[in-house]
Amino acid sequence: MNSVNDYQDQLVQTFIDKYKHTYVDIDRYDAVHLKQHLHFFQEIKPVLNDRERIIFDAIIHMQVSLQIHDRVEFDFLQSNHTHHMVGSIQMNALIGDYHSSWFYKLLSGSGELSALEHFLETVKQINRTKVELLHTEDLSVIDILDKVEEIYIGLYDAYALYYQLTDYNHLRNQIIYHFVYSHKPFWIEKMIQRNGQVKDKWLERKSQFEEDSINRQ
Amino acid sequence: MKLAATLSSIKPEMDQVERKIKEITSAEPSMISHTSSHLLEAGGKRIRPVFVLLASKFGAPMQKDVIEVAIALELIHMASLVHDDVIDRATIRRGKPTVNNRWDNGTAMFTGDFIFARAVELLQNLDEPRLHQVLSHTIHQLTLGEIEQLKDRYMIGQNLFRYFRRIKRKTALLIASSTELGAISSQCSDEEIIQLKRFGYYIGMAYQIIDDILDFTASEKELGKPVGSDLLNGHLTLPAILAIQNDDASLSSIESYFKDPTAYNREQIIQTIHDIGRSSAIDEAYAWSDAYLDRALNALETLPSHPIKKTLRKIAIYLGKRKY
């Protein structure tokens, strides 16, 4: 078990060593989530050739970017910002841009333009969904949870689709459970604040995921 | 000199660019459409599309690709502005409320991310991988410049090298990419592409220096934001760097403000901004801008004879001498 964990830690370290900007502190990265993303994307397609490795790195950059930009929204919501904290939130905005530029640079630099086109569609859709969640008042509770799931699973679906992987559903449920139901992520917290019924439905789905997981074992 | 008159030769194409940007932004679901249109309506000089179109005149006659490239460049600029406003906590841009002010930071961040993806997607249909290579390199450099700018914020000990490297990444490379991509998309020769890129780069440097000067010398009405916003936000730009070198009172005032920007007497720093705007640092900064402008004009001279050279020269001079 430890050796798997060590290997995953090493993947995180390798990614950070290779791509982290000199001026950016390592603790700005959510190492736990990064480790999970690296793990799940690798689970989807464990063996990669050199070209596929570039696509893998690019997709991790975009996932980091999308996630860190969520923190800009939610950290600013907290009151009593200190001068230092504001600087920290601002840096998160820039780190997100920096990693999305890596996504573009890696794919265009290696001539993977069809992959670029494929994933851009998903990036657009995820951002549409985020804006919709922030501004659409009359979404049903089910719609809200579907859309939150879409934010977290969007790039995974796109990745599996890009390689036309058909046997992905079980892993897909694990990923959704991990990012949306194993704890309350930003978006769930935010949606619960707006509509208390989201919490009941969220708990219901969480139980359903857990039950399905037990029945499968 | 009126910019519009100088650009009359590309007015039909610029109208097309403007119309298509509107079409693209209004085709989205309601909120993305609202926020993007809000950005678009704030206006701007659209200098990136202008340079794409003008540079393309050296190549094959007008092609659809050129318009798409011009639109993509403007969209990328818009995306970077909406994120800049979040970072600077800006409330007004060009006299209108910023997206983060009118809505919220999340909406601004996600709109920016959406526009960026849409801009890159526009180039997908063009059969020229070099466009992506140039643009992705530039965007990456742009993000490096932004991180450096934040790192340098409220830092008094900055030299000219740091400043010039920052504005190169922050502004000049995107304008250089505009002329370079305009040239690539109209199949200019390699030598023409290099010279047009150089022209764009030097103009970009001069343009940003002028922008930084105007932040001290123009009025709030002309700027569409408070005078001295850069310094108030902790950014040390060329006039302030030069003023610090020449004047101990400016150094002391800025140093105190940077040490504690929240508690320090705001009136004093506003007075310093006013003093810098009337100091010799402004003339020195103009001299730097003129030097870059001269280099841009020299790069222009190396290009083949073409009627559009006259227009590029006029625009270079206009941008180098603009008052707001």
From TrEMBL, chain A:
Species annotation: Allobacillus saliphilus
A Pfam family annotated for this UniProt entry: HEPPP_synt_1
Name used for this protein in its record: Heptaprenyl diphosphate synthase component 1
InterPro entries per UniProt: HEPPP_synth_su1
GO biological process: menaquinone biosynthetic process
UniProtKB/TrEMBL annotation, chain B:
InterPro entries tied to this protein: Isoprenoid_synthase_dom_sf (IPR008949), Polyprenyl_synt (IPR000092), Polyprenyl_synt_CS (IPR033749)
Matches recorded under CDD domains: Trans_IPPS_HT
A biological process term (GO) from this entry: isoprenoid biosynthetic process
Family indicated by similarity: Belongs to the FPP/GGPP synthase family.
SUPFAM superfamilies membership: Terpenoid synthases (SSF48576)
GO MF: metal ion binding; prenyltransferase activity
Keywords annotated in UniProt: Magnesium, Metal-binding, Transferase
Transmembrane segments: none
Cofactor(s) it depends on: Mg(2+)
Protein name: Polyprenyl synthetase family protein
Superkingdom of the source species: Bacteria
Organism for this UniProt entry: Allobacillus saliphilus
